[in-house]
Recover the amino acids of this structure.
């Protein structure tokens, strides 16, 4: 995973300079990529690290987006202040929803989380309390203003997304270097052994859900700012399946894997728009082939990220 | 306070009406190397699973330092200082040897919830202390050169050593070994016996299941013999070895076939 630090830094440098060489149409594609990459990384904390088969992640992405939209459009809260609730609300709802089902194994948990996602879509489509705008969603979300300065250019939004992604990567690096991140891996690889080593499986899985949901919520808020509108279809089960697939096809817990997965699933379709539906045929095939030929993902994670002072003295 | 570290009192465990453990009692003293023997399917591993919280016995009490611990979650049992290895090795096989052993440091680490997101100076110190302990254990078990190798790629004998190192990393009071010599060659078995003695001399009580009779008889100070889930004999090795009931249980089971 030392290698993945280098890849992360190169990636951040490339993405940091990307706006200097692109027009606003490409900047919009780039922003979408950054936002979806954040969601994919947050899914990776739950699925790739803790090994919980969460297939309703678009729910938390949507919660963040709708929190910003509702607070701003209906209550006139400035965007910048909606950011914190867009993190806190998904975090607590994540804990509340996952709590009762966290003991479920693999496929059972997967079905339950799909159920949550379907209910969420049903609720927002029915314009609950007149807040969610029904099937059309909510329009006219304000631009970000800080001390009266408007950040409305595509470049400004791009760099906000970029900052959020950089923060996400920093959090994931810290997670991997702590007992919390390791506990998730132990549970993922063998939960019986993990328990016997004194690891509270339920607690660490919920921790993963809380952290993943909070980050997805932040990305949702960014999504609302980017499109200045939110609507139910951006957060349905198909989107959840996409996030799930990105992690498995790219490589669980693998930074380059998740980036490649996000690029293939969300950016290539934007680039090859003229091929329309044919592209899904190609992607579907690519997903099937990856699972057959590289079951651990296109770029599988490498373990063994231990401090250098433990690696010395190995010649005796 | 009782003299015994671990007391099993009239414990019974059933699976769908079948008796796996039948009214079993035994007492393990602090500092002992205690052996459990018996034919295959006698319920030895089931007993270990009851002690470590993976199973809940239907009847009886499991007492740890005088307190009842049956029905307590496995992770809490580990926090009490009861650590184990598995008959069918259970390592985090894709992860490196050092990371595997580090899992034993989990309960000794004092990191807080926010340290998964933000690192603090005290957390970095804690992290370093625990990795150094992992280094010590890798030296003790001669695993240093495999530090970054995935545990699953190594030989059976090495994997058994990693499992023991992982359990010892948690600084247990009681180390439970489930057939530690299974799959080892003669040299490895002799070395294992020596290692177990050294661990005991560091103050760790040992409770083990083993089929290698030479090893059990030379290593253990007290032995309980189980057959069909029930205790049929107990005592010092010299007594158990010549107990006609034990001889019959072992040889008699051959005659049935």
């Amino acid at each position: 995973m030392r290698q993945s630090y280098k890849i992360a830094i190169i990636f951040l440098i490339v993405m940091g300079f990307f706006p200097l060489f692109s027009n606003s149409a490409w900047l919009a594609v780039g922003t979408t990529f950054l936002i979806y990459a954040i969601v994919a990384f947050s899914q990776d904390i739950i699925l790739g690290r803790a090994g919980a088969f969460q297939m309703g992640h678009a729910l938390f992405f949507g919660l963040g987006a709708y929190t910003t939209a509702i607070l701003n459009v209906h209550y006139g809260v400035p965007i910048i202040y909606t950011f914190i609730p867009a993190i806190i609300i998904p975090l607590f709802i994540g804990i509340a929803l996952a709590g009762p089902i966290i003991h479920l194994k693999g496929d059972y948990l997967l079905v339950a989380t799909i159920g949550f996602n379907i209910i969420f879509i049903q609720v927002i489509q029915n314009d609950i309390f007149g807040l969610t705008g029904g099937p059309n969603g909510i329009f006219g979300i304000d631009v970000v203003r800080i001390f009266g300065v408007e950040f409305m250019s595509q470049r400004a939004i791009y760099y906000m997304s970029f900052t959020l992604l950089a923060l996400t990567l920093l959090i994931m690096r810290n997670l991997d270097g702590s007992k919390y991140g390791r506990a998730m891996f132990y549970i993922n690889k063998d939960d019986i052994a993990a328990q016997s080593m004194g690891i509270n499986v339920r607690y660490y899985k919920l921790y993963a859900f809380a952290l993943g949901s909070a980050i997805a919520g932040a990305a949702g808020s960014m999504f609302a700012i980017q499109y200045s509108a939110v609507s139910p279809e951006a957060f349905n089960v198909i989107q959840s399946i996409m996030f799930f697939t990105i992690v498995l096809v790219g490589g669980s817990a693998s930074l380059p894997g998740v980036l490649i997965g996000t690029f293939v699933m969300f950016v290539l379709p934007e680039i090859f728009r003229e091929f329309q539906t044919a592209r899904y045929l190609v992607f579907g095939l690519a997903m099937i082939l990856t699972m057959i030929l590289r079951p651990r993902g296109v770029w599988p994670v490498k373990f063994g990220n231990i401090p250098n002072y433990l690696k010395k003295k190995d010649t005796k | 306070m009782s003299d015994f570290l671990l007391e099993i009192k009239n414990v019974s465990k059933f699976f769908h009406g079948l008796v796996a453990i039948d009214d079993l009692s035994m007492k393990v003293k602090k500092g002992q190397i205690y052996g459990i023997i018996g034919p295959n399917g006698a319920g030895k591993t089931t007993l270990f699973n009851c002690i470590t919280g993976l199973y809940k016995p239907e009847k009886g009490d499991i007492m740890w330092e005088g307190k009842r611990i049956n029905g307590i979650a496995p992770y809490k049992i580990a926090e009490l200082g009861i650590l184990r290895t598995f008959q069918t090795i259970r390592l985090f096989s894709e992860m490196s040897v050092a990371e595997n052993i580090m899992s034993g440091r989990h309960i000794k680490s004092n990191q807080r919830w926010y340290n998964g997101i933000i690192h603090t100076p005290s957390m970095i110190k804690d992290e370093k202390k625990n990795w150094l302990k992992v280094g010590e254990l890798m030296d003790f078990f001669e695993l240093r050169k495999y530090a970054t190798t995935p545990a699953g790629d190594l030989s059976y004998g090495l994997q058994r050593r990693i499992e023991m190192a992982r359990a010892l990393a948690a600084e247990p009071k009681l180390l439970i070994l489930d057939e530690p010599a299974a799959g080892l060659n003669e040299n490895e078995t002799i070395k294992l016996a020596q290692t177990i003695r050294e661990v005991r001399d560091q103050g760790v009580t040992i409770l083990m299941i083993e089929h290698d009779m030479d090893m059990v008889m030379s290593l253990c100070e007290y032995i309980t013999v189980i057959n069909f889930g029930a205790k049929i004999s107990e005592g010092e090795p010299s007594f158990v070895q010549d107990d006609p009931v034990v001889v019959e249980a072992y040889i008699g089971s051959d005659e049935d076939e």
DSSP finds nine helices and ten strands in chain B. The mean pLDDT of chain B is 92. The beta strands of chain B are 4-15, 18-29, 33-37, 59-64, 67-68, 82-84, 174-178, 205-209, 222-227, 230-235. The first strand of chain B starts at residue 4 and ends at 15.
